[in-house]
Write a structure and sequence with these properties.
The protein contains nine helices and 21 strands. The protein has 429 residues and is α/β, with parallel strands linked by helices. It has three domains: 65 residues, Beta Barrel (OB fold (Dihydrolipoamide Acetyltransferase, E2P)), CATH 2.40.50.140; 128 residues, OB fold (Dihydrolipoamide Acetyltransferase, E2P); 162 residues, Vaccinia Virus protein VP39 (Rossmann fold, 3-Layer(aba) Sandwich), CATH 3.40.50.150. The chain has a seven-stranded mixed β-sheet with strand order 8-7-6-9-10-11-12, with helices on one face. 41% of the residues are buried. The mean pLDDT is 95.
């Protein structure tokens, strides 16, 4: 019953990072509980086949439990594993991968050198003079002054922005603050997502750019639609450029407000090295990079291949990719505006290697059929969702040998993990 206190033992962890506990035959999902712990828990919701609870009192504590360094660790929806030692987080993530990718070999996760302050992008909602992150499963805002996932520079800029906006009563027209920090160069973009252009932010911009000379771009983005989409279509540059520049492995990239860019630059470099290693790319290879975004993988691989073709459905991203190739004097990378989920036969013909880096929904059956029918010799699949990766590998394994799966911890203190796997065309069919 709701509000009952039950003693239970945590026997496993869910894919969402909750403890899976048992009290007799009752299955209870408990936020903040770790496998092996025993606790008295309070039931807060009852479902048909399970209950949801919070810890009332720990009876037996896991040796991997740590005191969270973050003041809002149990309130904010950003971190799943703030209360768990970092090395044990990797153990738990691998167990989830093994359970999800049954039948495939999963290697140990490539850990982050520094799991703190790694995110180069932060989006902060504003509501009723409150600025912070959403509480999990709600629209309640949990305020913060320092986030241990965002870069320290982004935290400093946010604190200054927050103080100015509140003291000058300028926050009511703003829906979100968005900060991008290019950690390779130090450049910063600040964007205010506003309902309309009625307010004057010129003094704010003047003060912020004087206090933080690494701000190279200050943008207003108007979005008056009441949806979950954060960015609108209309932009106005108040200071500097409409992009910032980052650098990784000797490659410079222009990042616009709507550009997708991996949020963990340090782990991104490890990920791209792994893609190159698994691809066994040669100077004679023609490569097709599907879901290429602003072209970071394409430009990285172009140094090792004869020619790279990037395909992306978002026009602004394609324009960014073309610009980035020109910016780096890379002449053997070409970018195409197309939907990678369908009608790919014309692009797949005679390609030696295909790189897949799709969104969480994975790749389409149409694309899988095209990969098989065109007998692409090598595929490197980069996935941020092990469930859809398992689904897609099951459909490809009749035509392809599948290597070990290489996980990379792109998102410390969360349940998420990136995976890379090589597929080679079978010759026994």
């Amino acid at each position: 019953m709701k509000n009952d206190i039950l003693r239970c033992e945590c026997v496993d962890m869910s894919v969402e990072g909750m403890g899976i506990a048992k009290a007799g035959e009752l299955v209870v999902f408990v936020k903040g509980m770790i496998k092996g712990e025993i606790a008295d828990v309070k039931i807060i919701a009852e479902k048909k086949h399970y209950s949801i609870a919070i810890i009332d009192k720990l009876i037996k504590t896991s040796p991997y439990r740590v005191d969270p360094d973050c003041k809002i660790a149990y309130k904010c929806g950003g971190c799943d594993y703030r209360h768990i030692a970092y090395d044990y987080q990797l153990v738990l993530k691998k167990e989830v991968l093994l359970n999800t990718l049954k039948g495939y070999s999963v290697l140990d996760i490539v850990k982050a050198d520094d799991p703190l302050f790694y995110r180069n992008k932060v989006q902060i909602p504003i509501k009723d003079h409150r600025m912070g992150f959403y509480r999990r499963y709600s629209n309640d805002i949990v305020e913060f002054d320092e986030c241990y996932l965002q870069s320290q520079r982004a935290n400093e800029i946010f604190r200054s922005l927050k103080a100015y906006l509140l003291s000058h009563n300028l926050d009511t027209n703003i829906r979100h603050i968005l900060i991008k920090h290019a950690m390779g160069t130090g450049e910063v973009m600040v964007a205010l997502i506003i309902r309309d252009f009625s307010d004057d932010y010129s003094l704010l911009v003047k003060e912020m750019t004087a206090s933080f000379p690494d701000i190279k771009s200050f943008i207003l983005n108007r979005n008056d639609k009441e949806t979950n989409v954060i960015l609108g279509d209309e932009e106005k540059v108040l200071f500097g450029r409409d992009y910032i520049i980052d650098e990784f492995d000797g490659i410079k990239v222009k990042i616009s407000l709507k550009s997708f860019y991996q949020v963990n630059r340090g782990q991104m470099i490890k990920l791209y090295d792994l893609i190159r290693e698994l691809s066994d790319v040669s100077a004679e290879d023609e490569v097709l990079d599907l879901y290429c975004g602003i072209g970071t993988i394409s430009l990285y691989m172009a140094r090792y291949a004869k020619k790279v073709f990037g395909v992306e459905i978002v026009k602004q991203a394609v324009d960014n990719a073309v610009d980035n190739a020109r910016f780096n004097d890379i002449n053997n990378a070409e970018f195409l505006l197309a939907d990678a989920s369908k009608n790919m036969d014309q692009y797949l013909k005679n390609k030696d290697l295909v790189i897949l880096d799709p969104p969480r929904k994975g790749i389409s059956k149409d694309l899988i059929s095209s990969l098989i029918s065109n007998k692409v010799p090598k595929i490197v699949y980069v996935s941020c969702n092990p469930a859809t990766l398992a689904r897609d590998l099951d459909l490809l394994k009749e035509a392809y040998h599948i290597s070990e799966i290489h996980p990379v911890d792109m998102f410390p203190f969360t349940v998420h993990c990136e995976c890379v796997v090589r597929l080679t065309l079978r010759t026994d069919n």
